[in-house]
Amino acid sequence: MKLSSKALLALAISSITATAFAETQSQDFVPTTLAGTSAQSEAKGFIDGQSLGGTTRNWYSTEKKFRGQRFSYEKHGQTRTDANRTNWVQGTILNYSSGFTQGTVGVATEVAAYNAVVLDRSKRDIKGGSNRTLADSDGDAVGQWSKLGLANVKFRVSNTTLTAGRQNFSSGIVDTIGNRALPSSFEGVSFNSEELSNLSFQGGIFDRVSPRTEQSLSKFRSEYGNGQTTDKVKTLGFNYQPFKSLKTSVFAANVEDFWNQYYVGATHELGDAQTLALTTGLNYYKTTDTGSKKMGKIDNDTYSLSLGLTHQAHSLTFSYQAINGNEYFDYLHETNGIYLANSLTSDFNGPNEKSFQIAYGLNMAEYGVPGLKFNVYSARGWGIDGTHYTGTAYGEANVARSDLRLMDGETHQEYGIGTSYALQSGPLKATTIRGTYVTHRASANQADGNIREFRLVTTIPFNIL
User: Fold this and answer.
1) Alpha helices in 52-202 (DSSP H)
2) Interval 163-213: pLDDT, tens
3) How would you classify the pairing of strands 199-210 and 185-193?
4) Is 122 helix (H, G, I), strand (E, B) or coil?
5) Cα dihedral angle (242, 301, 322, 398), rounded to 10 degrees?
6) CB neighbours (10 Å) of residue 392?
7) CB 149 within 8 A of CB 166
8) Any signal peptide, and if so, which residues (predicted)?
9) I need a surface site. Which of 65, 69, 262, 282 has the fewest CB within 10 A?
C-alpha cells in the first residue's frame, strides 16, 4: 500500500490534532480474555425465546438526467427515451426467529417473508426493470411479489454460531445491502465466534445471492463488470478492539475465478464531543485476479482516509480516497462490500481516480429535538484514467458502463443534502423518515453521468411477539 503525499499530510494533521486536546475518550489497552458469559448457557428454549416482527418501508425515488442524457424503455416494440424515472415501492418484511434450544448445542431457526407492492406501475415512469422495481420481460412492473428472504437453521455452542441457509452476513467484503425497499441476502454457510472478550471471528461460503428486487436466487457477479458470474464466494476475517478507542477489522475473500480481495479497516476516537472529538478512519482494499480470470487482469490497491471533528451538535468530516489500478475498484453486485469513505451515489472508484469529500452534519438533539438530523456534503473526483486498461471485463462488451479505455482525465462532482427524523416514543417509536437530494455532474466519459435524484424513505418497525 502506497500512500500519496496528500494522504500522508492528512495523517500528519490527524496526529497533530490528536495532541491538541484532552484525551477524554479512554485510550486504555483492552486485554484479550475469555468471554465472561456463554450465550448458549442462557438459552431460553425454542419457543420461549421466539420473536415475530419486522419492518415496512415506503421507498420513493424520482430521478432526472440532464445535459442531453436520457433513460430508455420499450413500448409497442419501439425504444423510447425520456429524461425522468420514478420508482415507488412498499416493501414489508415479516421475520420469525425461534429461540435456541437448551443444552450444550443449541438449535434455532429464522424465516423471513419479503413482500413488495409497486405503487407506481407506469412503464414510462419505471423505465423497465432495475434494482428498484421488478419488471417482466416486456418492461411492465410486477405489481406485487413475495419471496423467502431468509430461511436458515442455526447451531450454537457457547458463543459460537453456525448458520446454514439463506441469511444476512456483514463484513467489509461481503455485506447485506439494504438501500432499497427490501434488502439482499445470501445462500450458504457461515459462522460467528465471540469466545474472546475483544476479538471475534467470522467466515462464510456462499454460492447464491437473493437480490433486492428479484424473486429468485442469482449467481454472484461484479458490480461494474460485463455480466460474468461465479459459483462460489469464500470469506474469512476478524474484528479486534485492542484499545477502548480503536476498532479494527481484517477480512479476506476468494471470489472463484474472479479475484482475491483483502480488506483492512480501522476507526480511532479521541476527545469529548462536548468539547471537541476526533474520529479517524482508514479503509484499505487489495484486489488481485485469480483462477480463470473471468474479470481479466486485476492488480488494484484502494484506500480511503477520513478525519471527522465533532463539537456538540456539529460535525465536519474530510475524506480522501484513491484508486491505484487500471481498472475499477470492483465489488460483488447486490452487496455493500465497499466500505470506502467516498462511496456515495457514485462510488468514486474509477481507474486511477482520486477524490475528496467535505461533509457537515447537524444533530438537533443538542437543541432539544432528539431524532432530527441534517447533513450536507460535496465530493469531487479527478484523474480517472483507463487508457492503460488491457482487459475485456470493463470494455466494449459492457453496456452498463462506459468503456474504460475512453476514460482519459475524466472528472465528476456530487452534491447532496439530507434530513432524517426518528420517532422517540409512542406506538410508532423508532420509525424513521429520511429525505435526500443529490446532484451528480460528470465529464463526457465518466460512467455515472449527469443526474439529479430526490429520495424519500419511511421505515416502520413492528413487533408481534
Assistant:
1) 123-126
2) 999 999 999 999 999 999 999 999 999 999 999 999 999 999 999 999 999
3) antiparallel
4) coil
5) -130
6) 15
7) yes
8) 1-22
9) 69
In a domain, 83, yes or no: no
Angle, CA 356 vertex, CA 307 and CA 412 arms, to 5°: 160
Alpha helices in 224-277 (DSSP H): none
SS3 54: strand
Same domain, 8 and 109: no
Do 164 and 249 sit in the same domain of this protein? no
pTM for the structure as a whole: 0.93
Is the pLDDT at 395 greater than 80, yes or no?
no
Residue 233: all three cell numbers together? 464466494
In terms of residues, how long is the chain? 465
DSSP secondary structure, 304-326, as one string: EEEEEEEETTEEEEEEEEEEESS
> What are the φ/ψ torsions at residue 184 (nearest 5 degrees)?
-85, 170
Q: Which of 192, 218, 244 is the last residue of a domain?
A: 218
Determine which helix (DSSP H) or strand (DSSP E) holds 150, and give its type and residue range: strand 144-157
Report the CATH number that the domain containing residue 463 is assigned in CATH. 2.40.160.10
Do 158 and 234 fall within a single domain? no
Quote the number of domains for the chain.
2
* Type of residue at 112: A
Cell of residue 394, nine digits: 470493463
Last-in-domain residue among 218, 235, 250: 218
Give the structural domain span for 98.
37-63+91-218
* Higher-pLDDT residue of 256, 130: 256
Residue 54: what residue type? Answer: G
Cβ count near 36 (within 10 Å)? 6
